[in-house]
């Protein structure tokens, strides 16, 4: 294997921290940086190599920090710059890198840039401003948020519900917000906007961080003329017309050359709605835009309908087809990110596993997949415990702006009768399903905050049995399995760099694949082949190894039904419900 192809971020396991819900250091019910610093030993014990930290910038918190009012300040909710530097130092002292979440597409409407822009000052053209149109001449509904008889510039819908344009009385024009009205989109066609954003990125690099997650980076370039979208589309075209706009690769490549070039960074771009491998390759291939990897959305759409609460039937072969497409499609062209959970996605055990009878087994089986494919695995806080979706009993229990606004608008429009009518679906897909507090202990407030504090969002109902304290004392727990998985991937180059081949693409129970290094790396004489078999079901299933591996002497390096590696011969066997096995061989 070419040593030049190695990168620390390819070999790393990244742990995502959603600070509001991770650990509360001051006892006010909201997670903060002091709480994160106090848990640095925990992250080191788990064995992760990097932390992706969700936004902690100064913000009015309309979207939990993704509405940035000052890119160079820490919000009081989370502490101070001194607290942030303490986190950085605590992680670096334990050889854990720090990746910051950066929001380049939009700011808060309380940012100085927007306030100056609405007054037509020095930043007058930094946002997408446009005049409205005569409401009598368009086929889409006018909004009561603008002047009488005037409709927004086009029919796009915000991803959070409602029109994607808001009228500003001071400027007497409409501004674009693909998300909340308090998140106006920046106009990246303006050179001064791009340079201002590059300055913010450089600021944090000068503070010693190790990379960035770039929020909705593929939305930066808007289509010329703001064309109307298909009125039958739930977003009226916004999700189809805006991603990967006409100048997007120019902007991302320029960002790389101006800021990232010559630095050893993890740069991962969130590409909302992205399902195309060829388009993704343009961001990450060696002669492309320069990103290390992207987050695509191809697999997280499985089982979801057009509305937040709608669910569809899915099959294991659907999931395999997506992962196969990305594993083979980016081979030789770029690097994959591997994730199921994050702050915007429901808990994977509830979504693709079994959160009742086989919670532990399905959690560890799914984890085995992500840590034995080609790409960088991302672990979202609580995933290493096998946390599941909570059950919200009323709309008042939700904190997510997207969930609350979408359901309320549907009720007002008469599309649904009540929250109760869609409760099951909302509980399955709301972003809040993954945002309940981290479960540290079986004690009051799960050890997340002070016993007498009120957490900013309700605790999961199972926190007394599913928590760090309990699982660290149980060597058969999900937590200990994650620890072994991380060690296993670190020990065997084949699980990082080996080629992938799926041997059961049409099987609805068994997912069996091999990883093969064309040339064994010299770093530690690591094994050059691996065979991974997953029974993705609650029933027993027969596993037949591929002929090239059958009868091979190997090490059963990991199995979620046993604790210790053991010598083995690769033969057919009857897999138990949700059983995962990883064999490695010379």
From TrEMBL:
Biased composition (Polar residues): 435-444
Region (Disordered): 428-447
Domain called Glycosyl hydrolase family 13 catalytic: residue spans: 16-429
InterPro entries: GH (IPR017853), GH13_cat_dom (IPR006047), Glyco_hydro_b (IPR013780), O16G_dom_2 (IPR045857)
Keyword Hydrolase attributed: yes
Record EC number: 3.2.1.20
MF-aspect GO terms: alpha-1,4-glucosidase activity
Signal peptide boundaries: none
SMART domains linked to this entry: Aamy
Cross-referenced SUPFAM superfamilies: (Trans)glycosidases (SSF51445), Glycosyl hydrolase domain (SSF51011)
CDD domains per the UniProt record, alphabetical: AmyAc_SI_OligoGlu_DGase (cd11333)
Keywords on record: Glycosidase, Hydrolase
NCBIfam families, A to Z: PRK10933.1
Family: Belongs to the glycosyl hydrolase 13 family.
UniProt protein name: Alpha-glucosidase
């Amino acid at each position: 294997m070419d040593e030049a192809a190695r990168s620390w971020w390819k070999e790393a396991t990244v742990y995502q921290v959603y600070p509001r819900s991770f650990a509360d250091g001051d006892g006010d019910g909201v997670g903060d940086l002091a709480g994160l610093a106090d848990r640095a030993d925990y992250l080191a014990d788990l064995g992760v190599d990097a932390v992706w930290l969700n936004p902690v910038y100064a913000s009015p918190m309309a979207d939990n920090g993704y509405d940035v009012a000052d890119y160079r300040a820490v919000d009081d909710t989370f502490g101070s710059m001194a607290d942030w530097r303490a986190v950085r130092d605590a992680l670096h002292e334990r050889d854990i890198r720090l990746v910051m979440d950066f929001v380049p597409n939009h700011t808060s409407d309380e940012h100085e840039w927007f306030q100056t822009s609405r007054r037509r000052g020095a930043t007058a053209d930094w946002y997408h401003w446009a005049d409205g149109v005569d409401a009598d001449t368009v086929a889409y509904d006018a909004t009561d948020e603008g002047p009488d008889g005037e409709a927004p510039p086009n029919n796009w819908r915000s991803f959070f519900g409602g029109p994607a344009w808001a009228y500003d009385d001071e400027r007497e024009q409409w501004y674009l917000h693909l998300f909340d009205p308090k998140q106006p989109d920046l106009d990246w066609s303006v050179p001064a906007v791009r340079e201002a954003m590059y300055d913010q990125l450089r600021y944090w690099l000068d503070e010693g961080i190790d990379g960035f997650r770039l929020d909705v980076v593929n939305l930066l370039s808007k289509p010329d003329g703001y064309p109307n979208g298909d009125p039958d589309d739930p977003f009226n075209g916004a999700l189809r017309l805006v991603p990967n706009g006409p100048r997007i690769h120019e902007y991302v490549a320029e960002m790389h050359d101006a800021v990232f070039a010559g630095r050893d960074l993890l740069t991962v771009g969130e590409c909302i709605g992205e399902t195309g491998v060829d388009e993704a390759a343009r961001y990450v291939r060696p002669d492309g835009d320069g990103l290390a990897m992207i987050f695509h959305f191809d697999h997280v759409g499985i089982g979801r309908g057009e509305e937040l609460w709608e669910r569809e039937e899915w099959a294991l072969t659907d999931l395999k087809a997506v992962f196969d497409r990305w594993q083979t499609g980016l081979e030789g062209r770029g690097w994959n990110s591997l994730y199921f959970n994050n702050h915007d996605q429901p808990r994977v055990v509830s979504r693709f596993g079994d959160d009742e009878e086989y919670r532990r087994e399905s959690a560890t089986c799914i984890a085995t997949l992500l840590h034995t494919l080609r790409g960088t695995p991302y672990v979202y806080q609580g995933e290493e415990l096998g946390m599941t979706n909570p059950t919200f009993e009323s709309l008042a229990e939700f904190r997510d702006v997207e969930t609350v606004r979408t359901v309320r608008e549907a009720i007002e429009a008469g599309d649904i009768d009540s929250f109760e009518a869609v409760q099951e679906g909302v509980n399955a897909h709301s972003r809040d399903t993954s945002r309940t507090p981290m479960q540290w202990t079986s004690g009051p407030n799960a050890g997340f905050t002070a016993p007498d504090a009120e957490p900013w969002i309700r605790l999961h109902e199972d926190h007394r049995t599913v928590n760090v304290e309990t699982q660290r004392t149980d060597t058969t727990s999900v937590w200990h399995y994650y620890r072994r998985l991380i060690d296993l991937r670190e020990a065997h180059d084949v699980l990082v760099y080996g080629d992938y081949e799926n041997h059961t693409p049409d099987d609805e129970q068994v997912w069996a694949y091999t990883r093969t290094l064309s040339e064994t790396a010299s770093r530690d004489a690591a094994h050059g082949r691996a065979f991974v078999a997953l029974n993705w079901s609650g029933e027993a299933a027969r596993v037949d190894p591929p002929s090239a591996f059958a009868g091979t002497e190997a090490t059963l390096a990991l199995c979620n039904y046993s604790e210790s590696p053991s010598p083995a011969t690769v033969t057919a066997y009857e897999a138990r419900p949700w059983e995962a096995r990883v064999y490695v061989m010379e």
